Description:
357 residues; five-stranded antiparallel beta sheet; two-stranded antiparallel ribbon; 12 helices; 38% helix; 13% strand
Amino acid sequence: xxxxxxxxxxxxxxxxxxxxxxxxxxxxxxxxxxxxxxxxxxxxxxxxxxxxxxxxxxxxxxxxxxxxxxxxxxxxxxxxxxxxxxxxxxxxxxxxxxxxxxxxxxxxxxxxxxxxxxxxxxxxxxxxxxxxxxxxxxxxxxxxxxxxxxxxxxxxxxxxxxxxxxxxxxxxxxxxxxxxxxxxxxxxxxxxxxxxxxxxxxxxxxxxxxxxxxxxxxxxxxxxxxxxxxxxxxxxxxxxxxxxxxxxxxxxxxxxxxxxxxxxxxxxxxxxxxxxxxxxxxxxxxxxxxxxxxxxxxxxxxxxxxxxxxxxxxxxxxxxxxxxxxxxxxxxxxxxxxxxxxxxxxxxxxxxxxxxx
Length: 357
């Protein structure tokens, strides 16, 4: 995990409307003695979807049923969640491929709150504060954790393609620079797992986890300053549930939180593919419906009591044995920049090379 440390000016709430991306870009160019901002090839998440359309991908439409020649959600997901093939001798194509891997990282609400600058020997990741979530993430903590996730993927992908990657914070704009240099190619298990990352917000089947599976989770989570804490005792689970319910109630009573969440939900498969970001409703076990209907249904079904009952039911449905009721959480010792656990992440933005978050 690459940790991104925010500069002092980002410790508080930032007004996205006053955030000048051009000044940010010019400052980076000045720091590197580049003649102009054109020397820094800026790439955003939407450009990958646009490139796919330009290459002849069929037009995408909203609707309840697929139309002839229209790419479905599943087809778009398969096309983007894959290991690509690129000529290592084509430096420009290779760097864009590394950025594609970066866009497969998770982000809060699947906002994809990043921009990428491509240079001959480096990739720069910058925050896109126009995509921040001020209600649920007022201090941009989740936003900068998301940038750390976006940095780890190209670090792993670079080594698999014969490049060593060194990531470090740069400047006063929250940017992260990944410097690249030739190295022996080595595809790590983490690299191989990038297109396989997924989880679900839907109901689990209730089958118990075996102790061997829990131990495997602990080994997989072990790392530099990282530990996995398995909650298995019934009293601990009940206490944790109390905190979850209290937190959920506080959020559900906040109109700004509810409005922000609804704005990032993609109620139909067509919207999920067309917009390429946000939280696809079907990933939560809900039906895929037109946006206008989804917005009407949202207020009727997404209630404080309904959500709290859902959490309580999931906890009560599992016995207290260590083999069946563990709830994993990942913590980075001594750091605010730990990667969030992915137990609520899923495939949500196939068209824009999105993470399943």
